[in-house]
Amino acid sequence: MDFFTLAQDHAAVFLLMLTRCSGIFMIAPFFGSLNIPVTIRAAAAFAFTLVLFPVVDGLGTVAAPPSVWAFAGSVLAELFIGWLIGFIAYVCFSAIHMAGKVMDMQVGFAVVNVMDPTSGQQIPLIGSLLYNLGIIVFLVTNGHHVIITALAESFRMVPLAAMQPNLSLTMLLVDFTNGIFVTGMKIAMPVTFAILLVNVALGILARTMPQMNIFVVGIPLQLMVGVGVLSMLLPFYVMFLDVLFNEMYGKISIALQALQ
Questions:
Q1: Model-level pTM?
Q2: Do 195 and 224 contact (CB within 8 A), yes or no?
Q3: For this UniProt entry, which segments traverse the membrane (predicted)?
Q4: pLDDT digits (tens, 9 = 90+) for 83-118
Q5: Cβ contact 190:228 at 8 Å
Q6: What is the full DSSP assignment across 1-18?
Q7: Cβ contacts of residue 107 below 8 Å, gap of 6+?
Q8: How far apart are CA 180 and CA 112, in angstroms?
Q9: Phi, psi (degrees; rounded to nearest 5) at 113
């Protein structure tokens, strides 16, 4: 093998690694935040590639794709693997967003939205609180380190240009997306149930005391009960985040195994 062919193979390995590392900076929480400039994210992906290149290059010889179209297909495959790791983490935080929307609708904050700089979208008030608290817990517990570890481990589990997609991966993505609604309702259930009890009590009052203006009494009561229950649940919410993040790490491993 001459020097030109050897350099071509190493350059192909580096570019494919850079593509996979760039995938997590597209959608992953914290890494893919829109308030982080694109140049910073690109520089971080390049730095990750530089650090991981000697290790991955030593795992085995990767030959450069024989044609431009084959190389383009490999680039899309590597980008999908990086995106998949970030997508699974994004699904967990989407469940937090959904829980916040359900809580806001029940408490009475449905018309109050705030701008989220990390996603560039308007999100509900309680959803913003839960999401920001989730990001803080995610960083404090070194969840971002686990994402980086999963990225590094993916090169061993799914070698470069060796992705083998199958039908089980599609079903996994459907299950992960379905988990947004299940997990979101689990988080929002205590507040939702408390507001339901308040509405039942107000309904009984409306039947027994027709002269009482239920709308004047009900709206502040729902607000006080909802905020009170939420304040009591915050310590348990942090504990629930630990379980949620552990499930996220397991899902990333399962998804990478489906690509082998």
A1: 0.81
A2: no
A3: 12-31, 38-56, 68-93, 129-152, 172-202, 214-238
A4: 888 888 888 888 888 888 888 888 877 676 777 666
A5: no
A6: --HHHHHHHHHHHHHHHH
A7: 126, 191, 195, 222, 223, 226, 227, 230
A8: 22
A9: -125, 150
